[in-house]
TrEMBL record:
The keyword Secreted does not apply. This is Flagellar protein FlgN. It comes from the Bacteria. GO terms for biological process: bacterial-type flagellum assembly. Keywords: Bacterial flagellum biogenesis, Cell projection, Cilium, Flagellum. It holds the Pfam family FlgN. Residues 131-154 are annotated as: Disordered. It comes from Mesobacillus boroniphilus.
Length: 154
């Protein structure tokens, strides 16, 4: 039973990560289109996926813990699985690693797009807004020492 629960949780994780990858790909298009409302919606969906992944990951950890009282990795448990189950677990875990790597690459691209957008916004603001004068007092201030800017006779 623990083996089936492990495989089931790995399949759920794979499905959720594939869906997360689709969201990351959509996010790239939304960032390029500069659609803030769509981006907000995608971020909400992404957060829901992350919460679901955390829940399934906890299930997977419990399934792994059912095999052994000591904390071990999935790779260490493979030797204890029947050969047909080993193949399934290896296939799913490799596919999961590939999907996670693709998500990381896509997120790096999205991060670059966000960074470029922020730089463009900052540059645009600097063109539109007048430069701020420096109102700090310092040694280069003009004026005659000892002479006040205000007339004391007034």
């Amino acid at each position: 039973m623990g083996i089936n629960l492990l495989i089931e949780s790995l399949e759920k994780l794979l499905k959720l990560h594939k869906s997360l990858l689709e969201l990351a790909l959509k996010k790239t298009g939304v960032l390029e289109a500069e659609d803030i409302q769509a981006l907000t919606q995608l971020l909400k969906e992404e957060q829901a996926h992350i919460l679901a992944i955390e829940k399934i990951e906890a299930e997977r950890s419990k399934a792994v813990a059912a095999f052994s009282s000591t904390k071990r990795t999935l790779g260490e448990l493979l030797d204890e699985l029947p050969p047909e189950k080993q193949e399934i677990v290896i296939r799913i875990s490799e596919e999961l690693r590939n999907v996670i790597a693709r998500i990381q690459k896509q997120n790096e691209l999205n991060q670059g797009l966000i960074s470029q957008s922020l730089k463009f916004i900052s540059f645009s603001r600097s063109l539109v807004e007048p430069p701020q004068d420096d109102y700090n007092y310092g040694p280069n201030e003009t004026g005659i020492p000892g002479k006040s800017l205000f007339s004391s006779k007034a």
